[in-house]
Amino acid sequence: MSVPAQIIDLPVADAPASSSQRHWFRADFPVIPALILLTIAFVALFANFLAPHNPELGSLTARFKPPFWQAKGSYQYLLGTDQLGRDVLSRLIFGARISMVVGFFAVMVAGVLGTTLGIISGYLGGWVDQVIMRLTDTWLALPALTFAIFLAAIVGPSMWNIVIILGVTYWTRYARVIRGEVLSLREREYVRLAIVAGCSKWTIMVRHILPNVINSAIVLGTLMLGVVIITEATLSFLGVGVPPPQPAWGLMLSDGKQGLMVGYWWLTVFPGLCIMLMVLSANILGDWLRVKLDPQLRQL
Amino acid sequence: MKQFILRRFGYALLSLFLLSLTIFFFVRVTGDPAALLVEPGASADDIAAIHHQFGLDRPLVVQYAIFMKQLLQGDLGKSFYYQTPVMQLYLTRLPNSLILAVVAMGFSLLIGIPSGILAAVRVGKFWDSAGKMFALLGLSLPSFWVGLVMILFFSVYLGWLPSSGSGTPWHLIMPAFALGWYFAAAHMRLTRSSMLEVLGSEYIKLARIKGLPEALVIAKHAFKNALIPVLTLAGVNLVIMVNVAVVVETVFAWPGIGRLLYEGISFRDFPVVQGVVLLGGAMIVIVNFVVDILYAVIDPRIRLEK
User: Is the pTM of this model over 0.90?
Assistant: First the structure.
C-alpha cells in the first residue's frame, strides 16, 4: 500500500531521488569535478613532459613577466614569471604533483591509522576500546591546524614530514566513524558464524570486518583530501611546509605576496585557483560518494 | 548530573594532561632545544652550559615535572627573541585576536543565518542549491587566499581599504571577512538542518493548522528554536577562530595571537610556539567541557548516556 504523498510531504534533509536519478552512475555523477581531478592527476604524473620550463630554475632577466595576453607578456611564459624569473605555469604543473602526492599519502596514512584503530577499538571493545577512544577524543579536542603547525615547526620542513604530520593530525575522524560501524557489524550473523567456525579475532577483523568498512573509509578519504590539501598549502604558506625552491602551491602564494602590492596579480591568483579547483572537486566528489556509497554517512 | 560533570571533568583533565605531554615530548624528542639557542658553530662546552642552565641534562621525568609545575603557575618560559615572559606576550596580543574573532563571527552569522534559513524554507529549490554551492565554496577556498585576493582588489586596484596593520576599524574589515568566510559555510549548514528539524516538528504543524501566515510561523516560531544549536556552535567557533586565525593574521599583519605564533616560527622562538599551542589547546578543551555540561543541563538524555 502506498502512502499518500501529502502525508509524508514534510521537509526532509535531502529531496527524494526522482526516477531519472535511479541510474545514479549516469544521472548526477559529478562529471566536471571528476574530470578536473583526473586532469590534475594526469598533469602531476607527466609533469616532466608537460612543463615548458624547469620549475626551480629561472632567469633573472625575465623576472615578473605578466601572462601572455598582457602588454609585456610573451608566449614563452604563458602564465608569467615570478620574482626569480621562474615560469609560473611550470611551477603550477609541478605543484600539482606535490599536492597530489601529499594529499594522497597523507589521506592514506590517516586512513590506515584511523581505520586500524577504529576496527580494533570497535571489535575488541573493553579496555582497549576505552583507551583508544579516550586518545581519539583527546586528539579531536586539539586544534588541528595549530597542532599541525606546531609539529611542522619542530620537525622541520620537508614534503614527507608533512605527509606524516597531516596523517597523524587527521586520523581521528576515521577512528570514530569506523568504530561506530564496527560496533553494529560485530553483531551480524556472519561474524557470529565466523566465530563459531573458529576464526581467530585477527582473521575476523581483516577478512570479515575490514571489507565492510572500506566504503566508509573511501568516502571519508575523499572528503579528507580537500582538508589535507588546504592544510598543506597553509603550512607551506607559513614557511613550515614544503621547503623552497620546490613549487608547492602554498609556497607560491607566499612568494607572490611580495609582488601583490605592485599589482603582480598572476602570482597570487593562479596558485589559489589551482588549490580551489582541486579542493572543490574533491569536496563535490566526496559529497556525492557519501550519499551514493554509504547511506550511514548521510547524516555527517 | 554530578557524576556526569565529574566524568567530563576527568576527560577534560586527561585531555589537558595528554596535550602537555605531547607538546613536551615532541619538543624534547625531535631535536635538541639547546641547538636553537646557541650560535651556529658553538663549542660543546657552550651547549653543555645551556643544557645545564635550562635543566636539559636532567632525567625526562624530572624535566616534565618541572615543566608542569611552571605551567600550573602560569609560567610558560621566556621568549628567546623578545626576552619577555611568553604569558605576558600572549596576554598583550589576546585582545586583538578577540576583536578580530568577534567581528569575523559577526560577518559569518550575518551571511550564514539568513542563507541557511532561505535554504531550509526553499528546500530542494534554487536557493537551496545555491546555498549548498556557497557552503562548498566556503569549505574549499583557503582563507589566506581569500585574504590575498581581497588585498589585490580592494587595496591595490581600488585603494579603498588598508592592506595590512591595525588601528582603525577599516583595518578590520578584510581580515574579519576572510576569517569569517569559512565559518559562514558551517553556520549556514547548521542553520539549514536545524531549521528543517524544527519545521518538521509538531508545534510548527499546529501553528500552520491554526492558520498563521507562513512568514510568522518561520520568523516567530521556528527561527527562535532553530537558533539555539547555531549560537552554541558560534560560541565554540569563536574560540576556534582565535586559534586558527594564524594565516589570516599573517596575511594582514594583524597583531594577534596567530601573528605571534608565526613570528615564533620565523624566529625559531621556541617557548613562544610551545606557549601559543598549549594555551590554544587548553582553551579549546575547556570550551568543549563547558559546552558538554551546558548540553547536559539543557537535555537530560545526554546525562544518562555512557
Answer: no
